Amino acid sequence: MNRRARDTRTALAALAAALLLAACTRAGTPATSATASTASASATPSPTPSAASPLPATAPTPQGLLLTADFGADTVTFVDPARGAVASVAVGRAPYGLAVGADGRAWVATAEGLAVVDTRSRALLARVPYRTGTGPVTDGEYRGGGMGIALSPDGAHAYVGVNVPGTTGVLEVVDTATRRVTAVVPVGRRPFDVDVSADGAEVYVTGHDSFDVTVVPAGSLRPRRIEVAPYGTEGGLGSWLKPHYAAVRPADGKLLLPFEGERLAVVDPRSGRTTVEPMTADTHQHGATVTADGRLLVVGTGAVEPGTGKGPSLTVRSPDGAERVYPLEGPHEDVAVSRDGRTAYVTGGYTRDGHWNGITVVDLESGAARRLPAGARPLGIAVL
Fold it and tell me: For 89, 153, 189, 225, which has the most beta carbons within 10 A of its beta carbon?
């Protein structure tokens, strides 16, 4: 048994009970269907966005800015990597993940629905309601509503993982042209992350509380579950040793899921087989992304318990498995990379306690880092 699992068995049992109770008290309306459907849900008319911005409302958004989902507010924030926040747009309660298309439109997964933002004009265009009932609109790590999100390579579909408190989640498929939900697919519990294969043929949903990845073919929408649990599933809902985020490896399309700065689960979505490679950061890990040249970047949030691991960090892992680990100040959640692959932007939101309102900018060559105040508990991030 891994040392973390052994040292914290008693604590995990207690935490499991607490989480189960929390999930029960937050339980909402059950999912409407366990099968894909082609019925449509209407988009909510766009409210006038309350954009608090020091820039003129008509000023176009420059390329190279960052966009963050402010989990601690109802906004997304535009961030200049050199000087900080330049504008915010209200999108809905507790935004989690976001994805930006080639047309400059951002799709933001909130507790209230899927918000659509024109990043060039900084305006809220619409908020598409989820078809699945998720209970009262709330804040916090266990709130119902959208979590992970991704766009198809052609931009025709948005795929959003919707958390349904107290039960399994769903993947809702949205037609980006009509802004309507066209299908609902059952997936794992608390879908932290959604990824799409390079050819757009498959969608991958990481189920945090169910120790799995659900593979969803974009054509048939028939889900297939792959358990991903390199430490086992002991501790259930209370376990810290669960998957959080995944990245699709450019070289072969396999999924990379980091665990605890100790193990990297490499999942073949075609065969369902998982192999495990060693990692070196020795820290609880969340956000992950890959660069065009195949480097894996992973956010470390810090030791689960004092004395059982190292502090927050950013791991940069080369395709050959060599790693560089850069210390970070305080917990962080997710990461994006500049277009030239030289700079990482790490959000300070964090889903648990210890978050802060900003991002850390990391020079990937030198490891030099600087903190940049921006947003309110930012989680998801994209480079415009």
Answer: 89
